[in-house]
Amino acid sequence: MPPVELVNRFVVHDGERWILATYVFPANADQSSRLQTIVDAVDPAQTLTGLTLVNQELARSFVPQLIKGLAIGTLIVHDWAEILFDIEPDEGSGAFEVGVTLVIALVSIVFLVLTLADLSAGRKQTQAAGDSDVV
């Protein structure tokens, strides 16, 4: 890749201003929080984004959104198994669909707990390695 193309990915001249993309890699939530504080102190108009922040937001909102979607979907279309699979395991009462929704919600919560435990273990390993003083 020519140097100009490489630089154009990180620095752009837009009218009377320059736009600069900078990449940092916080290792844990504390570093992400400190990084956001620094960005806000320099210029609140800046946008801090990235995979770590997106993953944190997804981890916070995934299970509640999933449960809400399943519950609303099951209330609105309480006979979705009949519609999708042309079966009537509960003779149209919707009990089967509610049961499936509850099982999916329970499995989602279990996976969320396991994910949070894994993230916590990763943070502890990072701090034990002495990386907690970055940013």
Write the layout of secondary structure elements.
Blueprint: H1 3-8, E1 11-14, E2 17-20, H2 29-42, H3 51-76, H4 80-85, H5 95-128
Antiparallel strand pairs: 1-2
Helix pairs in contact: 3-5
Continuous helix count: 5
Oligomeric status? single chain
Structural class: mainly alpha
Question: From the alpha-carbon coordinates, what is the Rg to the nearest angstrom?
Answer: 23 Å
Verbal overview:
- It is a single chain.
- With 135 residues, the chain is mostly helical.
- It has helices at residues 3-8, 29-42, 51-76, 80-85, 95-128; strands at residues 11-14, 17-20.
- 64% of the residues lie in helices and 6% in strands.
- A two-stranded antiparallel ribbon has the order 1-2.
- The protein starts with a helix and ends in a 7-residue tail after the last helix.
Write a brief structural summary:
This protein is mainly alpha-helical. It is built from 5 helices and 2 strands. The chain has one domain.
Tags for this entry?
two-stranded antiparallel sheet, 6% strand, elongated
